[in-house]
Amino acid sequence: MRRVDYRRFLNKSDEKTLPYFGGATVDAEDRRLRVAAPFEPPGWYRFKVEGRNATKLAASDPPDLEALPKVTGWYLDGQLVHDGAVAEPLFLMPAEQPARFAKLAGRRWRSGELLFSEVEFESEVEGQAREALSAGGSLKDVKAVPAPLRAAYAFALVEAASRRTGIRFVPAEVRGQVVKIAEGGADAAVAVLTALEAERILARRAQAELNARHAAAMVRAEVEVQREIRVEALRNRKHQAAEWAAAALEAAGARLEDARDLGNGELEVVFRFMNHRFISIVEAATLRVIDSGICLGHPPRDDLVTLESLPSVIKEAIDTHALVMLRFP
Hints:
It is built from 8 helices and 14 strands. By secondary structure, it is of the alpha+beta class. Among the domains are: 7-59; 219-319, no CATH class. A 5-stranded mixed beta sheet has the order 1-4-5-3-2, with no helix packed on it. Strands 6-7-8-10-9 form a 5-stranded mixed barrel. Helix 2 (124-134) runs parallel beside helix 3 and helix 3 (147-165) crosses helix 5 (178-217). It starts with 6 loop residues before the first helix and ends in a 10-residue tail after the last helix.
């Protein structure tokens, strides 16, 4: 009987055209691949795929994306505003940027990113929205405005108010008030931002008091066996805490972007969740949250949250329109 040499299958290679967003990995339709050497800029590339490794060959035009889930919305400064007043980053845009409030279609890639697909036909209402925005007016008297376009218009008003007032925001913070803003115009946008900043000032004051108590105490009442194990491990591998943080966030549906050892047993983590970036400070040994970077009540109870549970707390804040950002990465 002839013997089959299975080793000849191990080095089997293939070529795939895939979207690359930067970093050390790229996602194919069925699995995540390691990039041999990260590069710039992001875009569509042809890769040589061997096992779980991918090597860039050359830039490429995008393939047919019609098999991917379609998301339709209206364009605003690199984002697609779609159902539910969700403003989501739109990746791999064409060289010629679409007009503000253009109706676009995106396609959902396997790893979750929303890819630009095509510009769709407009009606008269998009032009009316652009005219209203140039005057800082409202959409109160404009007929048949789709809800996502109304939300995009409200976000645009708040962006303009943010530039004038210097008050920063993310769309999720004002998502619950888009109708009020769109119908109230520029004055309503300023009022919403002012109220948001007042809440931040109150939350930061309370957080500062909590941080002062934390700095004065320095000795934790709760010392767990797991903490001792992790502290010992950190002496040998300083990057271990970042790996734990990445694993904890990935298990909760978030993605770690950066981790920085603060040198006092604390770790600063920057992560992406629900289309937004957050920055938090945690205990390196236990991943217990010291400063979540968002408002968690008055007085703040960041000490009751771990990095594993923080994404679910953020999701609840976004879903209930209660998100207040205290740190901007």
